[in-house]
Design a protein that fits this description.
Layout (H helix, E strand, L loop, with lengths): L10 H8 L4 E2 L1 E6 L5 E6 L3 E4 L4 E7 L5 H6 L2 E6 L5 H9 L10 E3 L5 E3 L4 E13 L2 E13 L9 E4 L2 E4 L4
Length: 169
Amino acid sequence: MKRATPPNFDQVAFKKALGQFATGVTVITTRAESGQLIGITASSFNSVSLAPPLVLWSLATRSASMPVFQANSHYVVNVLAASQLDLCKRFATVKGDRFEGVSHAAGDSGMPVLDGALAWFECHNRSRYEEGDHVIFVGEVERCGIREDAGEVAPLVFQNGQFHGLKPL
């Protein structure tokens, strides 16, 4: 098989080009062995397969929460609504207890499902792949759900360095 040629661009150009692709915003949640709740904002979420039901997301290898996500058997992907921008920012930037004052309930696996999430996917941590400076997590979805009013609620979207809500065309 022929190998890739070296890139003809720098990281700034690559990030700018990637930024043109609109992505949904999620908060990935889990529980450490100590019982501490862990959550991070991620826009790298995508579906993989319907049968079996598989999804993926990725996390920087240097992330402080990497050891917990690597070791845990389960996590929850919480898809955020546009009205949840504050949660997005909280789980992306707050140091300390990101769950303080955040309403949530334990899923069947004991992992936190955020109240008001547009959709959620409770996943078994099926496989992980180290690629570049990230680890790709593939989750086998054991349970999922949506908000009752999901069809009337705009999702939170990130594109070109800004957050957006979507409206039907």
